[in-house]
Design a protein that fits this description.
CATH architecture of the largest domain: 3-Layer(aba) Sandwich
Helix content: 40-55%
Keywords: DNA-binding, Repressor, Transcription, Transcription regulation
GO molecular function: DNA binding
Protein name: DNA-binding transcriptional MerR regulator
CATH class of the largest domain: Alpha Beta
Largest sheet: 5 strands, parallel
Structural class: alpha/beta
CATH superfamily of the largest domain: Cobalamin-binding domain
Order of helices and strands: HHEEHHHHHHHEHEHEHEEH
Number of domains: 3
CATH topology of the largest domain: Rossmann fold
Domain HTH merR-type: 3-72
Number of strands: 7
């Protein structure tokens, strides 16, 4: 069982500490224990409940209503957030069932079939991304484990690398992008897909991958002269350092357009430097880069 401080909960959930305390005192939402020095500590169940409640409140439900629900009712309500009736729902459900059964061959088959029907890009946008969103909500509800998630992520990573490698080579005279993740950031799927989208639209990329501290970027601007720089902030840097990190990137790449994507880049009130954009969705990033060209290169 985890032992989290209230500042840990604030960092992981995005809910301010004073709000967490109010929810705890007014609604009995969490049940911390106190150390010998009278400091509150919270367990895994507290964190999961807080994340679930945050998900429901973010979809318009009142905290006073949510707090009256049992853990089982909250989990059911979180899972219901994904129960829409779009055309790809059946494919997502089939993939989800294969993942929960650790059926890697079936997962591979289903993704390959979806790619054959839709094309790789549409498979990622219409099937893989909704699946990943569903898994995120299931994690909040406590119904998926890391092994299942890692199996799917590894398979999607393989397919992204293979699809990107199959694209035609792009001349270095094309619009130039540098792509990387911050130090200690390992969530690479979104960045890999961005790399694919850019290459498919005839734009040149210098892909630097995961876990790259800013010191590793010192000589990139002078050597490569990028027109644009993109990064994805999922768990890094710390929530309170995102604006500072963006300013560091602006100093390293003073002339390039800066694209900062991911949940940490979508904080309310976040002030980003000039010529820096934070697309809300991957489709927004796609619209941004598609403005540079007319037609994508065939996969």
């Amino acid at each position: 069982m985890g032992h989290f401080s209230i500042s840990d909960l604030e960092q992981l959930s995005g809910i301010k500490a004073h709000t967490i305390r109010m929810w705890e005192q007014r609604y009995g939402l969490l049940h911390p224990v106190r150390t010998a020095t009278n400091i509150r500590t919270y367990c895994d169940d507290d964190l999961r409940r807080l994340l679930n409640v945050t998900t429901l409140c973010g979809r318009g439900q009142r905290i006073s209503q949510v707090a009256r629900l049992t853990d089982a009712e909250i989990s059911e309500a979180v899972l219901a957030c994904c129960d829409d009736s779009h055309d790809y729902h059946r494919q997502v459900n089939a993939l989800l069932a294969a993942m929960l059964g650790f059926d890697e061959p079936r997962l591979d088959q289903l993704l390959s079939e979806a790619t054959a029907r839709l094309g790789f890009e549409n498979m990622m946008l219409r099937v893989a991304y909704p699946l990943l969103q569903r898994i995120g909500l299931m994690w909040l509800a406590g119904t998926v484990d890391l092994g299942q998630e890692h199996m799917l992520a590894h398979l999607l990573r393989q397919k992204l690398l293979a699809a990107t490698d199959a694209l035609p080579k792009v001349p270095t005279t094309a619009r130039r992008w540098v792509l990387f993740l911050p130090g200690d950031e390992l969530h690479e799927l979104a960045l890999l897909f961005m790399n694919y989208l850019l290459r498919a639209r005839g734009q040149h990329t210098l892909y630097l991958g995961q876990n790259l501290p800013t010191v590793g970027l010192t000589n990139v601007n002078a050597a490569y002269r990028p027109d644009a720089v993109a990064t994805v902030l999922t768990t890094q840097p710390e929530r309170g350092r995102v604006a500072e990190y963006a300013r560091e990137l602006r100093a390293l790449f003073p002339e390039a357009q800066l694209v900062v994507y991911g949940p940490l880049a979508r904080q309310e009130g976040l002030e980003l430097p000039a010529n820096c954009v934070s697309p809300l969705l991957m489709t927004d990033f796609l619209a941004l880069i598609s403005a540079e060209v007319t037609e994508p290169v065939a996969a």
